[in-house]
Amino acid sequence: MLSVLFSCIMFACSSDDNPAPNPTDPEAVFQKELDEALSLAKLYGPETQEVAELIASRHKGLYTTINYKTRESTERKCRTDHHGPFEISDLARTMIICHYDSLKSVMSDLENTMKERNKFDRHKHQTSDYGYWGDLFNMQFPGLKTEIQVKCYSMFYATQYESVCRSVLGDSIYNVIRTTSGQEPSMLHEYYEIMRADTASAATYELYRQKSLEYSTHFDPDYVK
Fold this sequence. Notes:
By secondary structure, the protein is of the alpha+beta class.
């Protein structure tokens, strides 16, 4: 009898010390959705990569390997932008890199291929006031979108560090761009980071915006969609 009573007391204490998670608690719901969204990204990443590689091969282009946003980065983006995890469209993303003259045919082929698979969501042409431009395509899967970016060789060069450029583009393409442009790689990204820093004043922003614009003129500045 005493043993039974003791067991009941211990159970009650344990239950109080370790209460079950409240399924309606907003934070618990958010963490659960975060887990589910990240799992879906891993599930849909391989097909996203397959499409990127298919299009790149058809147009003699290159591609990066699929990249998955980390849990920490995803959580920060959700809280900063006030989005739910399933609204983040680049939890799984990759990129096609091609010759400047092939951009339009690559993008047309990519959109058509997505539509053939009933996965096309949108195409967005990105521009800026500091010289950057690029294109991104979203694939729609059940519950989540993934992303394929499209850039020409030189814009990839302008936004990536030398080690990344050489790894993805290869030494031959890297050396051609370095010679013809006369510019170091990645400076478009470097200037952007200075402009977006919390400590950047209006004068600093404008100074580096002008530097960025001048730098970008060396990399296919006439492309406008």
